[in-house]
Amino acid sequence: MSEGKKKVALWDAESRRTYKRLLGYSVRFWPVVLITIIGFAVDGGCLAFFTNKLRPIIDDLFAKKDPYLIFWMPIWIIAIFVVRGVATFVSNYGIGYVGRNVVQLMQRDVFAAYLRLPTTFFGNEHSGHQISRITYTSEQIAGASTDALKVAVTEGVTVIGMFYVMLSNSAYLTIALLLLIPAIVLIATAVSRRYRMISRRIQSMMGSVTGTVEESIEAHREIRIYGGQQQADERFKQISDRARYLNLKIIATAATSTSAIQTVGAFALAGLVFLGSRPSVIGSISPGVFITVLTAMGGMLPSLKRLANVQSTMQTGIAAAENLFAVIDLPPEVDHGTKVLERTKGDLRFEDVRLVYPRGDFQALVGVNLHCAPGTVTALVGRSGSGKSSLVSLLPRFNAPTNGRILLDGENYESYTLPSLRRQIAWVGQSVVLSDGTVAENIAYGELADASEQDIMAAAEAANAMEFIQRLPQGIHSPIGEGGNMLSGGQRQRIAIARAILKNAPILVLDEATSALDTESERLIQQALQRLMRDRTTLVIAHRLSTIEHADQIAVMEQGRIIERGTHAELMALSGHYAALHRMQFNERPTVVAAD
Length: 596
Ligand SMILES: Nc1ncnc2c1ncn2[C@@H]1O[C@H](COP(=O)(O)OP(=O)(O)O)[C@@H](O)[C@H]1O
Ligand SMILES: [Mg+2]
Fold this sequence. Notes:
Elements (H helix, E strand, L loop, with lengths): L12 H15 L2 H23 L1 H10 L3 H50 L2 H5 L3 H43 L1 H4 L2 H42 L1 H6 L3 H48 L10 H42 L19 E10 L4 E11 L4 E6 L5 H6 L9 E6 L2 E2 L5 H5 L2 E4 L10 H5 L9 H10 L3 H4 L19 H15 L3 E5 L7 H15 L3 E5 L11 E6 L2 E6 L1 H7 L2 H12 L1 H6 L1
Parallel strand pairs: 3-8, 3-9, 6-7, 7-8
Antiparallel strand pairs: 1-2, 1-4, 4-5, 9-10
The structure holds adenosine-5'-diphosphate and magnesium ion (MG).
């Protein structure tokens, strides 16, 4: 219960701004909103109107047997409730329509942010949080932007209507409300504070729940092989326990508020009876008036209860909206480039390039100088963690150099626009991410989508991929399963190479493209890669030195520096780090080196 002590300001400037912005989303559907509001008002008004008919029913219809009322009353009642039925339908559908549209708009805005944010964003947060923004948090918005409106209008009109009924029947008896209203305001404020606090935690909790599930599903093989079931189960239990605990807290808060309001209501109703039965007034109040006022006050209670809780819905929604807007507002990838690069010659120069990762202030590159002449192959070798991937990740500007510059065709590469720069680069990495679709759709991916079938086939052929594609039931139009899970590592790699061939970009990056493969697929892929590298400026990171012996230059990296550079023969003659690495691999893997 420690949360109760820390007070959060409700409706500070920040949350007012958030709420306004959220309303902006609903305002786009203003005609529907307007009809909906009218519907809710009619809905609430009808109930009060009916309550007001109680007095004539009791005093005139039954006591005086008024023939006019005896004929019309049943018709009025039907009319009131038919009108109310239509209003209820229109307004409920309308509010649902607006709510779903607002949720979709928010989801799309967040998704658009995910597509536009720099790659560094994705390393900073567990992906579970990123997923649950779309699956959970955005759903919370529907409540704040629309249900709140429904309650505010329907219940607001009901309360005002009932108040009018009470006042017009007996101003004296209405005094009983003085007991009710202040108590309810107090309860509502306390409840909202708590809701806001708890719902923030639930949101972050849902992120952890999603993240844990995602991890365990991805690691389903590891879990089975290393017997991690119990550990995974316990971890999930802990997190879901916490989620349940927080949700129960919300339920407890709502239940407390409901029963508190009912109790206060009982006091108010007792007060009403007390006031009505004073000897000085008991004779002057008719049973009809008394019953009408009593019913009106009783009818106010559920509405007041809902109004008290509407704050909470809004607070939950605001907490959700704050979280979503924070992501939507993050600055997109920086692109100061103005020049559109048509097709680079591929002259690439790194000048004293440094890279410091913001996380942990880690210096991944410490002054790298390197020149890659057009159409040549540069191999980067070195221990894992020496900065090879960091160096190549600068090319598509996933990271910007902290110091120094990168020149492309003699010009700082930051002066080119990001899309035109990225069009110059083809990339084959260690793990290939494919999308759910056919082989052809995966080869002709993104901007390549309108490639002809002939070109796709030719690319697949050159990538040595036709060999297995042919055996698929529908050839290049065969679906490859979710994320390409029907293909082997080597097959996926060849699809990635076919994609790179089809892109026909002047710069090629191969980041350990073959290190996860067996010798057989490696040979096929090496062959495909040789074709791919022809006439392109290629940066190749390879673990097996046998595969890069013919590179035009080999750069050996260590701790973010290039410590040796030259051809295979030069570096061997130097008897330095490269020669040592080579000797080590030769001793460990004599067959591979000998085979080359
Ligand atoms: N996003 C990142 N944030 C912080 N440190 C990183 C990040 N990516 C890589 N590093 C660190 O930078 C160093 C170089 O990594 P990397 O370039 O991937 O090495 P290599 O590809 O040579 O194995 C490693 O110590 C790694 O831990
Ligand atoms: Mg690497």
